[in-house]
């Protein structure tokens, strides 16, 4: 594992790099609003991606690097994310297909930036469809706007809601809630199988 610091317009971000032997693509994963890159589902997804021959960068947003728990505004998160993606491509992942992803808020960032970052796919862990008890405050337009293959890994009892499948969107449902703590092996396997499937046409 290698940890690097990346300058962004909103302060330094950090990326924890977990390389795969084959290195056929790179997966950038962001954390949730109040959590870090050690969340169980992020660890499981990293394991599954590496098993599929995909490098992983666990990206810590500038506000977390600075020691703040409250997330930055969405436009700052997106700008910082794209700056990290560009820096990693230049230094580590040149010419590799990029997959964007993250848990909860990090998944929303991945969706919003997938087009500008030229991601070939998006992985969402515990996507927050709406705030708990507020289905009227839906974030589904962010998911629906993604035009590349999407895998959403969701807990069956997630109080943040359950997204529906779409034209190029798959939903993998696991026991548990928003934390996705209960089936790390299943999550790793689902991510590995999905990445193998979506990357196969890219050679």
Summary tags:
eight-stranded mixed sheet, 203 residues, alpha/beta
Under the CATH scheme, the architecture is: 3-Layer(aba) Sandwich
Domains, number: 1
Structural class per helix/strand content? Answer: alpha/beta
The percent range for strand residues is 25-35%
Distance between the termini: 26 Å
Notes on the structure:
This protein has 203 residues and is α/β, with parallel strands linked by helices. The chain has one domain: Rossmann fold (3-Layer(aba) Sandwich), CATH 3.40.50.1820. The protein contains 6 helices and 8 strands; from the N terminus they run E-E-E-H-E-H-H-E-H-E-H-E-E-H. It has helices at residues 40-51, 62-65, 74-91, 105-113, 140-144, 184-199, and strands spanning 2-8, 11-18, 25-30, 54-60, 98-103, 121-125, 150-155, 169-174. Helix 1 (40-51) links the parallel strand 3 (25-30) and strand 4. The radius of gyration is 15 Å and the shape is globular. It comes from Actinophytocola gossypii.
In short:
Keywords: Hydrolase. The chain has 203 residues and is α/β, with parallel strands linked by helices.
Describe the secondary structure blueprint for this structure:
Elements: E1 2-8, E2 11-18, E3 25-30, H1 40-51, E4 54-60, H2 62-65, H3 74-91, E5 98-103, H4 105-113, E6 121-125, H5 140-144, E7 150-155, E8 169-174, H6 184-199
